[in-house]
Amino acid sequence: PASDTSLQKMLPFKFGGAVNINLLRTNTKYADVAKHEYNSITAENAMKFGALHPQENTYNWTDADYLVNFAQTNGAKRVHGHTLIWHQSLPSWVTNYSGDSAAFENIMKTHIQTVVTRFKGKVTSWDVVNEAFEDSGVLRNSIWRQKLGDDYIARCFQYANQADPDAILFYNDYGHEYSSAKRTAITNMITDFKNRGIPIHGTGMQFHMTVTQSDANISTAINAAAATGLKVHIAELDIRLNNDKVQGLTFTTAMATQQAAKYGYVVKTFNAIPAAQKYGITTWNVGDADSWVPGWLGAPDWPLPFDAVYKRKPAYYSIINAV
Ligand code: XIL
Fold first, then answer.
1. Is residue 1 part of a domain?
2. Does the residue 297 lie in any domain?
3. How far is ligand 1, taken at its centre, from the CA of residue 195, in Å?
4. 276-308 in b/e burial notation, b at 16+ Cβ within 10 A?
5. What does each C-alpha distance from 9 to 16, 236, 240, 290, 307 come to in angstroms?
6. Domain count, the chain
7. Whose Cα sits closest to atom 4 in ligand 1?
8. How many CB atoms lie within 10 A of CB 322?
9. How far apart are the two ends of the chain, measured CA to CA in Å?
10. 10 Å Cβ neighbour count for 32?
11. Which residues are catalytic?
12. Which residues line ligand 1 (CB under 6 A)?
């Protein structure tokens, strides 16, 4: 491809990455990839509850503002907000809260509305609720559900919509590609929300997946998401190679080829859904050395389209060639 090739130029939908704000600030190569390749951007951690709202009356906007400014000054990239309500990344003032359920509801509402209002007109879309279901399809018994009941999810969407009626609101989760029970539970929730007039506009599928995931499962997940009629965001894509956690494994040409084929299949299948529903694809970080996967797996891995020195991998070319 020509030297001015980039994902944002070659793909007929938005493509981006989750970024680490410290790397964005300090690593020129990292920032250059984000600038050149992406037209959508997500904060890997900087917009999570614990990062933005460490004390009840303290909000920390510095990193999130840096990201929004980066996006605005480098070609008006779309910013996708991740995430308002989740069971992780909660500060201890929330997890240890001793007040009653009305007071806890107010914490949830105030957090959502303060954050959404702060970024109104700057953050296009939000993962309003993240990972509320178990793989079995039951609601996760998070602190939010324990204190506020099963319908807290619907109220989160209403609160976000009140704060910014133009924001595109997503429910985000993982496992659509391997758990039909979870996929069905999410689809049923979306149908229920539509029937009740709860403002939901998109479904985010994380797609942290193993390279051995079948094409059939990937296609079932993408098409089921599209069948909801909502926008579809492949929101946290990475394709790991070492699901067996082999210590001391090294990255081979054969692995690169297999991974490239899987990236290509995801992109091709996504690109086949109706244009109005293609919200975009976001990889979870930029280069292999930046990925959360090795830490999470406890083993070496190379799950992203750029290598540790931000060179394009076979996966990169496979993404471009899939459309
Ligand atoms: C992960 C980040 O990548 C890590 O840096 C952090 O320590 C924990 O969270 N699903 C999500 C993301 O929705 O927010 C998670 O991000 C990865 C799994």
1. no
2. yes
3. 32
4. ebbbbbbbbbbbbbbbbbbeebebbbbbbbbbe
5. 12, 21, 26, 24, 21
6. 1
7. 292
8. 19
9. 14
10. 13
11. 131, 236
12. 44-45, 130, 206, 236, 292
Å from CA of 45 to ligand 1 middle: 7
Helices 253-271 and 215-227: crossing angle in degrees, nearest 10, is 20
Q: In this structure, are strands 78-85 and 125-130 parallel, antiparallel, or unpaired?
A: parallel
Phi and psi of 95, rounded to 5°?
A: -65, -25
Q: Which residues contact 25 (CB under 8 A, 6 or more apart)?
A: 31, 66
Close Cβ partners of 160 (under 8 Å, ≥ 6 residues apart): 84, 112, 113, 116, 126, 128, 167, 169, 199
Taking the chain (323 residues) in runs of 10, the rounded mean pLDDT of each run is 84 98 98 98 98 98 98 98 98 97 98 98 98 98 98 99 98 98 98 98 98 98 98 99 98 98 99 98 98 98 98 98 98
With the C-alpha atoms ordered 156, 157, 159, 163, is the resulting torsion angle positive or negative?
A: positive
Q: Which domain holds residue 191?
A: 7-321
Whether residue 248 lies inside any domain: the answer is yes
Nearest residue (by CA) to ligand 1, atom 13, is 130
**Ligand 1 atom at minimal distance to the Cα of residue 127:** 13
Residue that is written with structure tokens 């680490």 in the block: 20
- Residue 221 counted as domain residue: yes
Q: The domain spanning residue 266 has which CATH number?
A: 3.20.20.80
Residue type, 274: P
